[in-house]
């Protein structure tokens, strides 16, 4: 009886393999058409891969070399004819071989099979040496072959990687060819995935092989290939991950071959200085290809490695942090593991490690740092000093490079080297002395090479007349300065690196020493660039010392130490120089804006340190800082705003406006001093204007001396129109703020005295009022008659006038000649009215009076805009001065002659302003203007009547030139100057009554709407009629044309004259004739003229057909009145 076979997992798996391997083997052996059977073969291969990988994932303990040999049998049949199969089949077999190697043969791979597989894979990747490829190999196939090759080398028994004296069993030649194929893949232009797999294979070779002579044989080619990939130009064509794995592979190769432990015997021989000819060989081989490891070989190899490392270490300027970290680890590892064998490479390795060490990155305790190596190997200190000195002296030359990355790396290297030197307590006076000069020369080089940016971050021109131009002190956007040097965007990183170097280099004592050495260049240098560079460097160094000592100052008091005193003395000297720069600023003398900007920064920094104690310094610096707001340099304007913002915050003010208002007296003194010495600039006047606007009316009473200085400057510089206008802008601002002042009136006066000169219509009087008027007239006539009959007897005073006087001491005749009479002796006491008027005259009032008095002399200026601004000034100040008539009316009489002539100015906008000024005078002076207007009304050439007529004619002619005159029945367009009532052919009749909004300012002469409608006016018995026979002249500009606007101003002036000034009957009639035809469109003028003589106005309108008589018959019970014809 037979016993059934026991089923095990291995047996079951074998049966699965058998079901696939047998058909595959039969198909490979008996196939006649390889191409046709390739698809089926590929399916079997993929089935085997699936079976093997699945079992390896589940339980790989049943997989052994015998199963692998069983599977390899059909595969070998296919590989014999691999050139006849598609590469997809070969790729599948290579993948299956990798599974067999990793989970089947493992370390039990025989020497013959190992060599066969090495050759197979190497020929698959690189082709047969000396023969051309029959077909192209896909990139995927090459990558899979490298993976399989790496798995083969890693899993094989290390003894297979050693030389064998047995003929036919030496695998080193085959391995050498494989290494060559790997190196070629690294250096050639192939996909990165293939390069990564090739490098992995190289790592496997140098990791698995234990025979140092064998590795030494592969060392030159491997180092050469890796360094070729890691150095220009190939490194620029490689991906970052390729470069990283190549650096790691190079580190592994050098350590495993040239590590101090590996060559300790050779190092010992070198130390004992034995004769190289008598040195025993560490390893010898009969073949010519064997490498003899001798001290001479070590020295020669180290020299060649140094050349290769010199090219590889250029990667320190690479921008990738991963590559820099890998290169840093390479340097640290070689300095540690190959310290003696690669002693000649220490200088370049230390230099590169200094450049690449990370300051802020946390260091693992398991990783060796450069500082640890310096502690272990003290001889590295000299290399660090040498590298640091070389960097410091060569920094100006490096700053000439066009590559910003190179500059940044050089600066960063000095910073890291100095930190390491400080950490290991390496002091060098030579290095400290050369550091200051090197930094200054480097900054000068950068400044000369930098170009000003095309686009400047400008806050715009600051309008100092606007209080909104200044910002609050809490604004953080303008609380930071823009860079003064290296301000282009491309140099931003370089500037930051340089600032970091200056702030962190050395100890505070060293920084103070360096800053002090720069002060001599700041004071004495005549080269602007050198002075700016020294100024900036000294300031940055001192700022750094204060920031480093700020935390310690809160805990300890170092005031008694000389170091703190030196620090304060150096900064005080720097601040004094900055103050002199600010005070000596002048628009006429050009100076580098960077120097002035740095002076502003120093001033602001000093204020942040002193806080409220800085307020006394505002006496000297506030006005100069404010003048920079009007600078032509946008960078200086922004610096000035930032400085004011910082000053306000430091001194405890809520805003810059509050800062200026609280210190207005200091600024006013500075301005007055400059005005008195004629040291004036447009920026000065703008600052003064801004200050007056910000402080408001309360500053005006104290500007008396300033106004005198301004007019003195006007007398000296009246030939400079722009400057004169800037001075008058200050006066205009004084007037604008002065009229708002409550100080125009004495404190005892609660309300402003008002004088209303507006004419009011007489109320209707009945019979009693008429009788009362007649009675008074008869009484005055009787009194005059009785006084005329009596003889004239002048009244004689019976008591002294005025208060009693003390009896003066009797003087001799000579004494009376020498001493003039005192006012108390000859001056009569003021009357009550004069006292009241004098009480109304405050300092502000007197100042405005002085400005108005002196302004008249400049109304004849050749600059039209100045004439207009002065006329507007008169319009502004007139209402404020009018309450004190005894002082105001003489001023009116004084400015009248020059003011009335401005109506005939060649510039229409000046004439309009003159009309507006006269209108304000009419409102303020009233009847006082009557005789003056009457005098100029009928003058032949400069007469007011003729001017109004010409203005009216120009206004109509401007529009009537663009269209034909419309003729029809009606009356004349303009009333007859002679007063006749003859009828004309052209008639203009407004069609509708003016709306409440159609005033002089809105409706205008040429905004009329002419039609055929008839509306009733507010006046009783009057009706407006219209005529379709007239069309209003029109044009593109309409009421915005200059003649039209001038006519509007003339109408407004006539309305003011009639409303506030007493005019004669004849002048009134002539005014009525001038405006009667357009009177319905100007209700204010019509109402004013009706107040004076309503009947004349109605009659004038009626005569021109602008109203019609509407008489209604009376109604009475029992009577019927007949209608009367109206003509």
Describe this structure in words.
This protein is mostly helical. It has 43 helices and 5 strands. Strands 1-2-3 form a 3-stranded antiparallel beta sheet, with no helix packed on it. A two-stranded antiparallel sheet has the order 4-5. Helix 6 runs parallel beside helix 8 (192-208) and helix 30 (721-738) packs parallel to helix 36. The longest helix is centred in the middle third of the chain and has 26 residues, at 528-553. The radius of gyration is 54 Å and the shape is elongated. Mean pLDDT is 78; it is low at 1-5, 274-288, 463-469, 810-827 and 962-1036.
Task: Compose a concise summary of this entry.
This protein has 43 helices and five strands.
User: Strand sequence of the main sheet, in spatial order?
Assistant: 1-2-3
> On the 0-100 scale, what is the average pLDDT?
78
Enumerate how many helices there are, as a single number.
43
> What integer value in Å does the Rg equal?
54 Å
Structural class: mainly alpha
Instruction: Name the shape in a single word.
Output: elongated
